[in-house]
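A quick aside before the break. I want you to see a complete sequence-to-structure record at least once, exactly as it would be stored in a machine-readable document. Don't worry about memorizing anything.
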Amino acid sequence: MKRPIIWAAFFVSFGILARFYFKTDMVLISSFFIAVGVCAAAVYKYYNWTPAVVFIIFCLIAYLRTDQSLYSPAKDFVNIEKTVRMTGFVVETDETSTNRQRLVADIWLLNDGNTYLQTRLNVLAVLPQGVSLNIGQTVVLNGELLSLDTARNPGGFDEFMYYRARKIAYKSFPTVSDVGDKQSITLNSLLAQTRRRLANVYNSVLSPNEAAIMRSIIIGDRAALDENTIDLYRTAGIFHLLCISGLHVSIISLAIYKLLSAFLNRRIAGLLTLFALVAYCLFTGSSISTVRATLMAAVIIIGRILFRDRDTLSSVGFVGVCLLIYEPLYLFDAGFQLSFSAVLGIATLTEPIDRLLLRINKASTPIRTVQGFRSLIAANLAAVLGTLPAVNFHFYTINIYVVF
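That is the input. The structure line, written in tokens, reads:
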């Protein structure tokens, strides 16, 4: 059987969709898994591939992982119109458009005055004006614990899906009642300090708008981007430049690998490149597109180290399965869909488009001189066509000149 990991990715997606849409309807769920078993049996019979039963396991794991992602661990403390005391530490910070600090706190203790709950959950908190905390600080927040909002209108922002996919369970607008004297030195805090210093360099030498663009492109910090800039890049079809993704990872990995290959052997150069990519992924905040690109680059680099040929579709399937098992709600995320649809479009449509362009221009004599340019156009068209459904679904736009 060729590329079984692609089939595994499909079955994982089916398991996620079943839990999300069927919820706890046992009749629908039972019918679904019977259909999954029939599909696995059909795959086994058609390909004569005995391990096809593993697809049912992938589907079941995805279903259970989605159930975990949708579970509310502190539902008795949410939306009760009472002040909840939340004890934890700060893991992430940025600023809102009104210059108030927004942070993610890893909470380990909840207290509503009567009941204590020891748990581990992330809460998105917007602090009062003028209050600021640092990553790694232990903190006690007092405020109402609120559930995340779902989209109220078709095409509206779905706060629940967006933040739950990022492991954030609830939100709050609390006051700070206590801050620990010591700040824990963690990897997150060290990376945050480095990002802050680099951001200050851009802020000091560039105009505010240019500094915001550079911070987005280099360190993945889009907090300072204004809506007009975002709309301009999105309308032009180049919003991916503002997101750390395959473009950035490709440039960095190729540059580092080529440089190291001049002095070191192939395997050591690959390992050092892999280490540098992982460090850059963590440094820029580990967004979905960055993790996808880093994992794909890692698969290719490890293949080179082991002297194995790469297969783009298998790499995409492997990375997709890994990410969806880790967080099933990625499947509904615009960044995930755009990132994978672009790569799949390039992998599957580039050659057919290239052949079509060759037929169109077969009467032209200097075909060989423009072959590289033609392939570049084909790859761009493939990426545009691959992402077109996701772009239309999320942004309601069709950009006819984006390929340029």
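Two observations worth writing down. The mean pLDDT is 85. The chain is about 55% helix and 15% strand. We'll return to this after the break.
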